[in-house]
Write a structure and sequence with these properties.
Number of helices: 7
CATH architecture: 3-Layer(aba) Sandwich
Bound molecules: NADP nicotinamide-adenine-dinucleotide phosphate
Oligomer: single chain
Strand order of the largest sheet: 2-1-13-14-11-3-10-6-7-8-9
Order of helices and strands: EEEEEHEHHEHEHEHEHEEEE
Largest sheet: 11 strands, mixed
Length: about 280
């Protein structure tokens, strides 16, 4: 079904959802010895990416914005990644059975084309995973679910040495990428040393700020569900302070006209990204 309208660059063409982002070939966009880092969010028009669940007290992506069509694009972005960058919080939620999903690429038949595509492109079956954490409060049983790929934990010099030793004794790589916190530039350097060429950041506002402040984020994909949620306990795509506004240039904009769901898919490039 061709129910995607291309708004920018302006075009009269209607497109199918499938392969809308897969055709970007993000795994081949980095210059030699470089790394392309891209982030992706879904938000309501009033900017909520998560709301506190009244029952569990956990912050979660609200069901009123999460949807299968956006998830398809999330999967396509994952398919193009050598590595995914996520937070320790994700694994804490996974251990409680509250995470949105086990990290892609999805193994259900609807995503089989993505698994095939990765094989054709000579990519590993699944992207590796980098977990950013200072506390190293990461439930091992949740990490163990990713036995089919390499998992690296990135932390700072502040991290507890005993916890580092414990993780290493379980065969997990722990890398130091900052003094008090993980720093974006050191993280990028470490990822390049691991020979990654494309990194998909799927964490929330703090890791987003870490990358933006260091000017190492290259692209931002933002789905806006055309609804308003309100609520005072929420996350948006960025919090805290950044040293200066991050300027964005619009690369593409699509309107998803599928009924009854309405949303806009935007892709931006960060114009002051340092190489
Ligand atoms: N709608 C969407 O598209 C979307 C996307 C992503 C996330 N979310 C939601 O947003 C909420 C927040 O997500 P999140 O907690 O994953 O994101 P986050 O705010 O980026 O990460 C929080 C955790 O990451 C670690 N961290 C962040 N920056 C660090 C740094 N510079 N150095 C060391 N550690 C650092 C810390 O872990 P430690 O505490 O272990 O030190 C911190 O507690 C969640 O509810 C999630 O579901 C929504």
């Amino acid at each position: 079904m061709t129910d995607i309208l291309q708004l920018y660059p302006p075009s009269p063409q209607k497109l199918p959802l499938k392969h809308l982002y897969l055709s970007l070939n993000l795994h081949k966009q980095a210059a030699p010895s470089e790394l392309l880092i891209y982030a992706n969010y879904i938000a309501s028009v009033d900017g909520r990416i998560s709301l506190r669940d009244a029952e569990s007290g956990e912050f979660m992506v609200p069901a009123s914005i999460a949807n299968k069509r956006d998830w398809r694009l999330y999967q396509e972005l994952a398919a193009q990644a050598d590595v995914m960058i996520t937070s320790a919080r994700y694994f804490r939620q996974l251990a409680k059975g509250k995470a949105q999903d086990l990290l892609p690429v999805g193994t259900s038949p609807e995503y089989a084309d993505l698994a095939n595509w990765r094989r054709q492109q000579g990519l590993n079956k699944q992207p590796d995973v980098v977990v950013i954490s200072n506390s190293l409060d990461i439930p091992f049983e949740a990490l163990a679910q990713l036995e089919d790929r390499r998992v690296i934990i990135c932390t700072s010099e502040e991290a507890n040495q005993q916890k580092i030793n414990q993780l290493q004794s379980l065969g997990i790589s722990v890398l130091i990428a900052g003094n008090q916190q993980v720093e974006g530039k050191r993280l990028k350097k470490l990822l390049i040393q691991q020979e990654y060429r494309s990194a998909y950041m799927i964490a929330g506002p703090e890791i987003h700020r870490t990358l933006l402040n260091a000017k190492v984020l290259d692209r931002l994909f933002l789905t806006s569900r055309l609804n308003l949620l309100a609520g005072d306990a929420f996350h948006t795509i960025l919090n805290g302070d950044i040293q200066q506004p991050a300027e964005l240039e619009l690369l593409s904009l699509y309107l998803d006209k599928s009924s009854p769901l309405k949303q806009i898919f935007a892709q931006y490039t960060l114009t002051r990204t340092e190489k």
